[in-house]
Each structure stands twice: as structure tokens, then as C-alpha cells.
Amino acid sequence: MSAAAPTNKWLVALSVTFGTLMGVIDATVVNIALPHIRGSLGATIQEIAWIVTAYTTANVCVMPLTGFLGRRFGQKRVYMASLCLFLVSSVFCGLAESLPLLVAMRVLQGAGAGALLPTEQAILQHAFPPSEQGMAMAIFSMTVMLGPAIGPTLGGLLVDHLSWPWVFYVNLPIGLLGLVLVSRYVHIPAELQASKAAPGGARAGVDWSGILLLLVSLMGLQLLLAEGNEWGWTEPLTLALALTIMLGLLAFAFRELTTPGPAVHVELFREPVFFFGTLMGGVLYAMVTANLFLAPVLMQETLGFTATEAAMALIPRVAVSAVATLVLGRYYNKLPPKAVLAMGTLAFGMSCFFMGGLNLEASSLHIALILAVQGIGFGGINVTLNTLAISQIPKHQKVDANGLHALVRQTSGSIGVAFFAALLTRQSIISRAGLIPQVVPGRTEVMQHLGGLETRLSAQGVGPGALSSMSLGMLEDTVQRHASMLAFNTIFLIVGGLFVAALPLALFLRRQPPSPTT
Prior knowledge:
Layout: H1 9-25, H2 34-41, H3 45-48, H4 50-62, H5 66-73, H6 75-95, H7 99-127, H8 133-161, H9 166-169, H10 171-185, H11 190-194, H12 208-231, H13 236-258, H14 272-302, H15 307-330, H16 337-355, H17 364-388, H18 398-435, H19 444-459, H20 464-501
Helix pairs in contact: 1-7, 1-8, 1-10, 4-7, 4-12, 5-6, 5-18, 6-7, 6-10, 7-8, 7-18, 8-15, 8-17, 12-13, 12-18, 14-17, 14-18, 14-20, 15-17, 16-17, 16-20, 18-20, 19-20
């Protein structure tokens, strides 16, 4: 494909955002539809979880290969082919009448979406001049941020007013618009086409051994993260799988560092800015993703918010994050990156401390204000890490670097969710065990509470024979809610402390003048 005249950078940004946004949304939009899909296909809870796991696994496996694919076929072709695969598989997901077919289509859908984010990031970096890389990454960060925010709300509306297949069909019109825009406005820079002839480029042999080691290791890792809580982290099967994954990743790294034409350029981690930027990204995104997972669960399952109330409480975080991201992107070159990253990390940590002080009487407005502080933190973290980490990488290797950066970010997020979900379960048991001794028969406060419950139930028309059992059931529910709240408080305080502990990592990040090849 020949190079074309330069196109307006904003048209390029608009073109690549449509398809990528749908890919990010699909990571969460299906969650709200899982109960409906389960009823429609007759699947168990454990079976239906593979709809989510299949997408995430395929997504993660493809991310580090986008540089290899881009060198062989060109970034524009890879983006358009991936978007086509995503759209076609979305249609078949909606048409699926069996769980195995739906899971298989979710694998293809995740594979298509996996190449979109790193490729969009590289295309934006080429479209915007070096002085505006902060704004380019602000646009990219907006895509990453809006997906998880829009997904659950959009899914709820589609399921309530149409049916569950529409969480997949909705991708088609928006994705097709993105496909047309990319075809018309996105062009491959001439220097990137020339890089195909470079060593390890498109003319080199395919590193099938490296690709196979990577895919098997990442699939095993995603399986471990998805099923580890169910199997038990200390069980022989879990430990054996973890050891196998570790050996597979070590073999993959050795292969890629020693072969003349690697599929994944892991040697990019030798560049200090990229290494420390990606390392800090992994550490912070593990906690950020865990926080994004925990807040809606707290609101709906412990505080009793409806899905709509929880979604409304999340809006300020999205709005503040959007403004902070655009402002920081606009003035990125005028601000010290270490200070911006430290500000974002500290803001996110403080919001976690505030969440750790909530109780069962917390209102949606109170939580919305706390999440707005998180929005500031999200903007500071995202813009800085996405821009600075890639700043010293040569242009022809930016897709490789973006793929590796996205892989670490996504994998760390999965690890964070798995770790803190397990910790939350354990802490709930500990908190309940601490509360139970205080709820003993004969204690004045307990008897008064039970008497009040029986009076309320009697006024509602409950017969004398059922009063005792129902009031005891309500007391048990109250104890469980308090235990859950205490567990959430502890987890949020731990996450906040980890954010503060991560602050010194910002000292390793230094803005350097870009080299002529970047």
C-alpha cells in the first residue's frame, strides 16, 4: 500500500477511536447480560464465566504480536483486518444458540479487539508531532477509560429494552463507521513501509516457536487467574500450572532474545524509560483495575444500590477523568512528568483511603464525590505513563512497544482483580468471625434489634409462626452486610497504602529529548 498525503490528525484520531472504543466496551458490556445468556443457553455460573475469560485470554495473547503483524502486513491493514474480525465475530456471538459456539466466537472477537488498542496507539503517535504526543495519548487514554464506564450502562439498557444478543449487534454500525473512516483517512508513513526490509521485518522468517511459547504461556496465565480462586491457590494443580507458566515465559524470553527474527521484541525492555514506565504501569494498573472492579460490587451488593444508581455514581469519575486527561494532554510538554504522575498516584491513593472510611449509610452522592477524586488520579497516571514509556522507542518499533506495554497493563489488571477478589473473600470471613461473638442470644442490644424486626414484620402481615425465623434471617443478613462493609474498608485501605508506597517509582521516570528516530 503506497503512502498517501498527510491527513488531518484529528480525522485520524476520530477514525481509529470508533472501532477501538467498541473493542474496549466489549470487555465489560457483556457482564450485565450474563444472567440472561445463562438462562437462554442453560449454562451453569462456572460455564458462563468462560464467555468473559475467552475474550480476555484472546485479547491478551494478541496484544504483544501486533508489532510482528504490523511489520508483515502494515499497521493500517492489521487495524482494518482486526476490526473486520471483531465485527463478524460480534454478529455470530449474537446468533449463537449454544455455549461452545458463543465461547468460540468470543475468542475470535477478543483476538480482533486485542490488536486494536496497540495499533491505535501507534497510529496516533505517528499522526501527532512530537510536541503533541501528550495530546495523542490523552485521546488514547480517553478510549481506555470510557470503555469500562460505558459498558455496563449500555449493556443494561440493551438487555432491558431489547435482548442480550444486542450487546453484540450494537458493535456493527459503530464499527462499520470506524472501518470506513480508517480506510479513507489513515495512511501508513513511508518510513514504516521501508522498515519492512529491516532485519527482523516482514521478509524474515516467522518465529513460530516464540509465538507458540507466548500463546501457551499467556493462555495458561489467564486460566490460572480465572480459576485460581475456585481451585485454591495452594492446591497441587494450581501450583503446577503456575510453575509451568513461569518456565514457559522464561523459555519465551530466552527464545526472543536469541533468535535473529523475533516475533516479539522483548529487548525493548533494555531501554530504561520504557522499562520503568511499563513496570510502574503494571504496578499501578493492578491496583487501578482492582479498584474499578471493587467499587461497583460494593455499591450494588453491599450498599444495595440499583444498577442505575451505581452507574450514576460512576459518572463523575468519568467526567472528571475526561477533563483531567485532556488538560494534562494539552499541557504535557510544559509539566514535569514525575510531578504529574505523583499527583495522579496520590489522588488515587487518597480516594481509596476515603472509600476505606465508608459505612452502610453512605449515599451515592458521597461515593460520587470520592470517585471524582479518582478521576483526577486516572488522568495523571494514564497520560504520563502512556506518553513517557514509549517516548524513546524508534518509530518502526512503537507498535511492538505499545503491544508489550498493553500486555503488561492488561495482565497486571487481571492479577490485581484476582488477588484482591480473593483477599476480599478472605477478609469477609475474618470480619464475620469477629462480629459473630457480639451477636449472642440474651444480649440486650441483640434482643432489642430482634424485637424491632418482629414488630416491623408483624405490621407487614407476617404471621406469628414465621416471625422468629424471618427476624433471625434478617439479623444474619445485617451481620453479613456489616462484615462485607468492614472487608471492603480493609481492602480499600490496603490499596490506598500501596498507591502511596508506589510513589517513589515516579522518581525513576525522566523525560528525555526524543532521538531523531522516535
